[in-house]
Design brief:
It is a single chain. The longest helix has 22 residues, at 427-448. Helix content is 35%, strand content 24%. It starts with a strand and ends in an 18-residue tail after the last helix. Strand 5 (89-90) and strand 6 (96-104) form a beta hairpin. By secondary structure, it is α/β, with parallel strands linked by helices. Helix 9 (301-318) packs antiparallel against helix 16 (474-490) and helix 14 runs parallel beside helix 18. The chain binds fructose -6-phosphate (F6R). Fructose -6-phosphate binds at residues 300-303, 347-349, 352, 355, 399-400, 484, 488, 604-605.
Length: 608
């Protein structure tokens, strides 16, 4: 992951770089560094730890004067977090300096060759080969040297580069790691993501694979890997700048939990028209929709959990067979594509390396690919045949909440569209679904009002060793996401289980007082789930149940109950997930952890 940023212009670069890195810290936060040209030499400061350590070290950038520079915030892949492994990386002469996001896969071979030529490596990173290779190829022409390096390296990279010989330029290049270029009246910028530069400009160029850019104070020039000049058109970003700030909330996660009614409304409303679901971006006629014989959903993490919900909803509502795969498995399992398969890649960032590779695998087989993506202009959005955007706005907290909710809302719309054209629901059922869908934002709002109740309950479990989340059908999909939310930010071990599967082994882990969160929102499965609750209670579990209003009798079986408003059975995930997100948040808060930046994680996983 890692975040990179660069600036050249009229203003002091260091404060702009530090500010940009703060917006990119979600991408990695084990060390940070900046390099600035001070009018005489390129100076560098880099240090292990959060960005604030670097800010203190440089007095907010004051000790690093100069109007051109590059910066980096790291999520370690090659080499542990340390001052030495932090970026930027210099060559021996301090005449070339590089920041890198991605992985150089053939770095070991390149390193051996460079060492044989006398290059001395100071760090354990793969990145350092880049700076020595640049030195090897540089003969006064930065673009030519960068091109040659790009031809030698395998893997992924977004690079920011400075040459002491060309102090009035910064250079950048990308392949399979995100990179944008911003043009502002006071200078030009590069960054891994939009929030880093939103304060300075809304005019953004998206770099494509194997492109190079050279920025000066006044100019931006693009080249392909053959050195040919490219003409590119900027895109105007229409994000609200406040959306990328905390706006009075203690954490981005809480703010984003509270933004869910809006995220769901913005995803649904524009697509509900004249008693129909209109998804123009699908680019498919009704006949084409009817011809789809199978859907293959591929994603990672929470987006994969959204996909599992999608399977239950699409199969149940529209009677289309759906396969759901983890992208990291899918890409290497030699998938079989039948004619009439529609591939759906779900991704908040649109940059997840495995999901992007799955997209390319599907396209290689000639399959139509639909991206369900949150970040406009991201790689998956650009490479998919069609994109259905989730309108959740920028999501900063590492643990996803609002993007997940928008993803499942998008999947409901898709299922309704398929169901309608394939005639698997009557018009009356369709209209009832539409009205239920429209009520979701308000119902989510109601559930958010439970926050104090959930916080009190969460405070009882701050010292728990492990927990279980169980459910059947869509409730199982909700359990998967509830369990991930809890464990990733609280560091309490937690597992999600299909409620009927627990007794095939895992039930032996239940002991006196173990918290089991039981989801029971699916009416047809309700009696079965109650039996599973009884099974764990008999083994000493304390059960918190989440069920629909009206099931008061559950209080005789479960120890603690949260009721969700009544909705269509296919849509209960959107409501039941809210108390589970709040539960994870308050356990993490109560344990005094860094909610928005949990250890070992990064938001945008652009490496395999
Ligand atoms: C968990 C979380 C991750 C992401 C996963 C996929 O809270 O955020 O599991 O869902 O890394 O990321 P995207 O959706 O950006 O492809």
């Amino acid at each position: 992951m890692c975040g990179i940023v660069g600036y050249i212009g009229e203003n002091q670069a260091a404060p702009i770089l530090l500010d940009g890195l703060a917006k990119l810290e979600y991408r990695g936060y084990d060390s940070a560094g900046i390099a600035i040209y001070d009018g005489n030499e390129i100076r560098m400061e880099k240090v292990m730890g959060r960005l604030k350590v670097l800010e203190e070290l440089t007095h907010g950038g004051e000790t690093m004067p100069g109007c051109a520079g590059i910066g980096h915030t790291r999520w370690a892949t090659h080499g542990c977090p340390s001052d030495t492994n932090a970026h930027p990386h210099f060559n021996k002469e301090h005449s070339i300096v590089v920041v890198h996001n991605g992985i150089i896969e053939n770095y070991a071979k390149l390193k051996r060759k460079l060492e044989a030529k006398g290059y001395e490596f100071l760090s354990e990173t793969d990145t350092e080969v880049l700076v020595h290779l640049l030195t090897e190829y540089y003969d006064g022409d930065p673009i030519a040297a960068i091109e040659r390096v790009m031809r030698r390296v395998e893997g992924s990279y977004a690079l920011g580069i400075m040459f002491l010989d060309h102090p009035h330029h910064i250079y950048a290049a990308r392949k399979d790691s995100p990179l944008i270029v911003g043009a502002s009246p006071v200078g030009n910028l590069i960054a891994s993501d939009v929030p880093a530069i939103l304060r300075y400009t809304r005019n953004v160029y998206y770099m494509e694979n194997e492109e190079i850019v050279c920025l000066s104070k006044e100019n931006i020039r693009f080249f392909n890997i053959d050195g040919d000049k490219l003409e590119k058109t900027p895109t105007t970003i229409d994000w609200d700048i406040d959306a990328a700030e905390k706006g009075g909330y203690e954490h981005f996660m809480l703010k984003e939990i509270y933004e869910q009614p809006k995220a769901v409304r913005d995803t649904i409303s524009p697509r509900l028209k004249n008693n129909d679901v209109v998804i123009e971006e699908l680019g498919m006629t009704d006949d084409e929709l009817r011809a789809v014989r199978k859907i293959s959903i591929v994603a990672c993490g929470s987006a994969y959990h959204a996909g599992i919900t999608g399977k239950y909803v699409l199969e149940g509502m529209a009677r289309i067979p759906v396969e759901v795969d983890l992208a990291s498995e899918f890409r290497y399992r030699n998938p079989i594509y039948e004619e009439g398969t529609l591939a759906i890649i779900i991704s908040q960032s649109g940059e997840t390396a495995d999901s992007l590779a799955a997209l390319r695998e599907a396209k290689k087989h000639g399959v139509r690919v639909l991206g369900i993506v949150n970040v406009v202009g991201s790689s998956i959005a650009r490479e998919a045949d069609n994109v259905m955007y989730t309108w959740a706005g920028p999501e900063i907290s590492v643990a996803t909440t609002k993007a997940y909710s928008a993803q499942i809302a998008a999947l409901y719309l898709l299922a309704m569209k398929f169901a309608k054209v394939r005639g698997t629901v009557s018009q009356e059922e369709f209209l009832k679904m539409q009205s239920d869908l429209e009520q979701l934002p308000e119902q989510i709002e109601t559930l958010l009002g439970m926050k104090e109740k959930i916080q009190r309950f969460a405070n009882r479990y701050l010292a728990a060793d492990h927990m279980f989340f169980i459910g059947r059908g869509i409730d199982y999909a909700i359990s998967l996401e509830g369990s991930l939310k809890l464990k990733e930010i609280s560091y309490i071990h937690s597992e999600a289980y299909a409620a009927g599967e627990l007794k095939h082994g895992t039930i032996s882990l239940i002991e006196d007082g173990t918290l089991v969160v039981a989801l029971a929102t699916q009416e047809n499965l309700y009696p079965k789930t109650i039996s599973n609750i009884v099974e764990v209670k008999t083994r000493g579990a304390f059960v918190m149940a989440v069920t629909n209003f009206g099931h008061k009798e559950i209080e005789k079986t479960a120890d603690y109950v949260i009721y969700i408003p009544k909705t269509n059975q296919f849509f209960t995930n959107s409501l039941a997930i809210i108390p589970l997100q709040l539960f994870g948040y308050y356990v993490s808060l109560g344990r005094g952890l860094d909610v928005d930046k949990p250890r070992n994680l990064a938001k945008s996983v652009t490496v395999e």
